[in-house]
Design goal:
Elements lengths: L3 E5 L3 H12 L3 E5 L3 H20 L5 H9 L1 E4 L10 E4 L5 H14 L5 E4 L6 H5 L8 E6 L8 E6 L5 H13 L3 E5 L8 H17 L5 H12 L5 H8 L1 H15 L8 H9 L14
Parallel strand pairs: 1-2, 1-4, 2-3, 4-5, 5-6, 7-8
Antiparallel strand pairs: 6-7
Helix pairs in contact: 1-2, 7-9, 7-10, 9-10
């Protein structure tokens, strides 16, 4: 019998997780608060499958079957029979805690409750439940169908069984995992990219070098596939600002204090590719 996954949030990350899971044979229920958000999420999945088919990377029948395994709903009760629940909503602790309080009551007793957070300590999210031992971080990377990594994050009370089940899920959908044994804010990957983006933005802000040259230095000097400022534009300057703010609030480490230019860019709506302008014009 196919395993069942519930994904909470049909945005870029949630729909990506739903997409790779359905393609790997999971029955997926994708939940969001509005029909419009669900339609956009499902449309994005259809378009992504179509691209893979056009490139010869996915059989058309397999794409059709995968799409048929995804159902959408605005009803949170739909998590009731899921083996794994992945929350992929906005990076605000209050929103996530509210969802996990509900999942605590609605999900079956042996379900794994996972958060796709990139920066918020899992312990803080798990504390909203009566069963923190079954809460774990499964931090996927964008775009989910293309990126191989999944960062598994232990909360203070996450059990070995929960971590093992989360690894089994992530590996079953084609991901390679690293384990974060202590859920410091930002974990491993977000701390690294945040520190790099903050420093790159400071160099750019103070006129030391252009965005293009800063990124070129990281690509040619360090072998990075993409420079930090181009990464900020791809991820969203607003998303990275939230992440660095979360890490700074938790750690009080000055290297994570975002420079003023990032705040002004977000205020102005210059948040990267999705707005047409960030550190670069798109």
């Amino acid at each position: 019998m196919a395993k069942k996954l519930a994904v909470i949030g049909a945005g870029l990350m949630g729909s990506g997780i739903a997409q790779v899971s359905a393609q790997a044979g999971w029955d997926v229920v994708l939940r969001d608060v509005t029909d419009g958000a669900l339609a956009r999420g499902r449309g994005g999945i259809e378009a992504s499958y179509a691209k893979f088919v056009a490139k010869g990377k996915l059989d058309a029948d397999a794409a059709e079957q995968a799409l048929a395994r995804i159902t959408t709903t605005t009803d949170l009760d739909a998590v009731g029979d899921a083996d794994v629940v992945v929350e992929a909503v906005f990076e605000k602790i209050e929103v996530k805690r509210e969802i996990f309080q509900a999942l605590d009551k609605l999900a079956k007793d042996d379900a794994v409750l996972a958060s796709n957070t990139s920066a918020i300590p899992i312990t803080k999210i798990a504390a909203a439940t009566s069963c923190p031992e079954r809460v774990v971080g499964t931090h996927f990377f964008s775009p989910v169908p293309m990126m191989q990594l999944c960062e598994l994050v232990r909360g203070y009370k996450t059990s070995d069984e929960t971590l093992a089940a989360a690894r089994e899920f992530a590996e079953s959908v084609g991901k390679t995992c690293i384990v974060v044994n202590r859920d410091v804010a930002g974990f491993v990957t977000t701390r690294l990219i945040s520190a790099l983006v903050v420093e790159a933005a400071k160099l750019y802000e103070s006129g030391v070098a252009s965005a293009e040259d800063i990124d070129l230095a990281c690509k040619l000097g360090f072998g990075h596939a993409m420079g930090p400022l181009a990464t900020a534009d791809l991820t969203g300057v607003d998303i990275l600002l939230h992440a660095t703010d979360n890490i700074y609030a938790e750690s009080q480490d000055e290297k994570f204090a975002p420079p003023e230019i990032m705040r002004r860019m977000v205020d102005a709506g210059d948040i990267g590719r999705k707005s047409g302008h960030g550190f670069y014009a798109h």
